[in-house]
Amino acid sequence: MSDEGDIHALVLTFLGLSLISVGGGIAVLPEMSRMVVQEHGWMSQLQFAKLFALAQAAPGPNIMVVGLIGWHVAGAAGMFLAMLAMCGPTSLLAYGFSRLQRREFPWLKRIEKGLVPIAIGLIAASGLLLAEGTVREAPPVLAVVLASFVFVWRTARSPLWVLLGGAAFGAAVL
Amino acid sequence: MTPTRGQLFLAYLRIGLTGFGGVNAWARQLLVEKKGWLSDQQYAEALGMGQVLPGPNALNCAIAIGARFHGAAGAALATLGLLLGPMAVLVCVAAAYDRYGQLPLVRAVLTGIAAAAAGMVLGTAVKMAVKLRPTPLLWLTGALALALAMLHVPLPLVLLGLAPLGIWAASR
Questions:
Q1: Which of A135, B26, B124, B161 has the fewest Cβ atoms surrounding its Cβ within 10 A?
Q2: With bands split at pLDDT 50, 70 and 90, how would you rate the model's confidence at A101?
Q3: What is the mean predicted confidence (pLDDT) over B52-76?
Q4: Packing angle, helices B136-150 and A106-137, rounded to 10
Q5: How far apart are alpha carbons A79 and A60 in whole angstroms?
Q6: Confidence band for A174, pLDDT divided at 50, 70 and 90
Q7: Are B111 and A170 in contact (CB < 8 Å)?
Q8: Contact criterion met (CB below 8 Å) for B43 and B33
């Protein structure tokens, strides 16, 4: 496929993803990997997990993984356009809504309550899919997945420690 | 207390650049606890709106907070502040990955980080689920979302099927 075709597909993919990304960036990750890995074949599941890891290890919103995918597919232009597609239209929507919000929206609360469990289920699925990609490549890292899972669940410490621990394990064991 | 436009931009620049592992916790700490620009309640409302609308939560939340203080200019400044720093870092990270990503040590370290990030996402999900204390029907909704996503069912279908169930279950 031509580079230009890839950029088109990239923009359309993230435009579509942004509009269904209720519950935030990580909730939409399973769909993102389905599009990026299976539909378009831009990378393997493991590469996807690694780009996500890079984005997590760098500062900024979780959604920065979109920029890395854009970069992988079509360089700097891909990074910029993928981010713009993912953030532009929904930003305008958020702005419009924040202007409206001079009163309470009780129905919005109810929708939120109903969507939160779906978002949590999707976030759990993201974790499992990411784990699947890495454990298949290097089975010993299952220990890292489990340790990190317990650490983040049971403590309130910065997740940065977990990422550092994972890096050390990778350097020492793999 | 109302921040000036410059203060707003700088605050979000700082949030973007310090926000490891997602920026929401860092944003709350700076805006509510350190600067006192917003009450806990006001921040929670902005975040709630950011979560229910489509799009990145942290960004939606920044737009609502920017707009609250300085209208369209405030929303634009908060957006730029939040994204510019991480984008610049990301360009460097991506270029370095292209160059060194295939070195055995780098591959091993990244696989380790990827595994840790996967566990982190799982831990976050469980933490959120426990905090929510869902009713059995809401548990079922979440479990179905998990199962369908694992089976690679397209997300629009998952949402169409489960959103009515979730909203119904939540309003009972």
A1: B161
A2: low
A3: 92
A4: 40
A5: 15
A6: confident
A7: yes
A8: no
Closest-approach residue (CA) in chain A for B102: A47
Which residues of chain B have a CB within 8 Å of the CB of A152?
Answer: 119-120, 122-124, 127
Complex-level ipTM: 0.87
What's residue A124's pLDDT? Answer: 93
Contact indicator for B70, B8 with CB cutoff of 8 Å? yes
Shortest CA distance from B130: residue in chain A: A153
Q: Do the beta carbons of residue B89 and residue A58 sit within 8 Å?
A: yes
Taking only the tens place, the pLDDT of each residue in B94-135 is 999 889 988 999 999 999 999 998 998 899 889 889 888 889
Nearest to B119 by CA among A148, A40, A33: A148
Partners of residue B50 in chain A, C-beta under 8 Å? 94
Retrieve residue A123's tokens: 């976030």
Q: How far apart are the first and last CA of chain B?
A: 40
What are the angstrom distances between the C-alpha of B52 and each of A10, B19, B22, B55? 25, 21, 17, 9
Residue of B nearest to A94 (CA): B60
Task: Measure in Å the smallest separation between the Cα of A169 and chain B Cα atoms.
Answer: 6
Cβ atoms within 10 Å of B34's Cβ, excluding its own: 11
CB-CB contact of B22 with A52 (8 Å): no
Residues in chain B: 172
**Nearest-CB residue to A60 (from B16, B159, B170):** B16
HSE-CB at B91 with a 13 A cutoff on CA atoms is: 9
Compute the average pLDDT of residues A61-66.
Answer: 90
In tens, the pLDDT along A151-173 reads 989 988 777 888 899 999 999 98
Q: What is the pTM for the complete model shown?
A: 0.86
- The whole-angstrom separation of Cα A59 and Cα A56 is 7
